[in-house]
Design brief:
Shape: rod-shaped
Largest sheet: 7 strands, antiparallel
Distance between the termini: 53 Å
CATH topology of the largest domain: Jelly Rolls
CATH class of the largest domain: Mainly Beta
Helix content: 25-40%
Number of strands: 7
CATH architecture of the largest domain: Sandwich
Amino acid sequence: MSAEEIDKGDATTEAESFQDPHTPSKSAENSLEAAIGTQVREFRQKLNMTVVELAKVAGLSAGMLSKIEHGLTSPSLSTMQNLAKALHVPVTALFRRFEEERDASFVKAGEGLKIERRGTRAGHQYQLLGHTVGKAIGMEPYLITLTDESDVFPIFQHSGVEFLYMLEGEVSYRHGSKTYIMQPGDSLIFDADAPHGPEELHKLPIRFLSIIVYPNPKVS
């Protein structure tokens, strides 16, 4: 492959990158090779280097560097070290575009699922704001609302650790033998296997986030 062909191919690549700089080719989308190639090309372009120039500094052939930039080959660790050195970046910078799929739970404002828990009988309103899926640790975030129809109920007990964050109102919240007066902006984290819950409602309505984290028995 001649230098002229490399530069021509490089110009085409740069034009495609300008049109959509964040999208790798569909055939190699989300692959590690494509992610590394994209990063190498972007760092090279920032330094105003041609493929031929970078290949020479990194001790590679222009053809091999072109394949790396297009995600057509998996570079060895030593090759990546040489490229990183030539580009004046850490090796880890070449992995920035690689993202494995992760589960996410998104809930729009006001669309949390209303569910029943022990406190529902005492007039406590629960909105589930999402949940983790298939992980060793389970997490359940709730938006809890207490009104003039709510009763005090300081005897909740369940597994895990719970985190509270006050949004509105004022409440005396008991955990074990201690009571905490909670106002907007206050937070509390505790072992949830001890008796806990609102002991006195001072200023209504009361709204707070409750995030419960616990071992997931479904995952070994």
